[in-house]
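Work Package 3 (structural annotation) set out to generate three-dimensional models for the target panel prioritized at the project kickoff. During this period the team completed the workflow that converts sequence records into discrete structure tokens, so that structures can be stored uniformly alongside our sequence database. As a representative example, we reproduce one entry of 79 residues exactly as it appears in the project archive.
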Amino acid sequence: MILYTVLPIEIVLEGLEQERDFIDIQLQGLTITVEPVSLEEAVIVRIISTDPRHYLNPQLSPGRKIRMAQVSSFTTAML
């Protein structure tokens, strides 16, 4: 893979060596992968669905924070 960027390589690779924990959860009948940021909140990383309409839902967009109280079930995932 070739990455063309004007940024210094140190900035591009910053934080790459840190291991991140991801969890697959069921939310609104759909499976999504989140990264917990606290006991009460998580950030959406990706949506796992074959329905294109799910990707257009702004409430499920990657980067959005959700409250873990909304979650019906979860399993640990490694990415």
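The chain has a mean pLDDT of 85.
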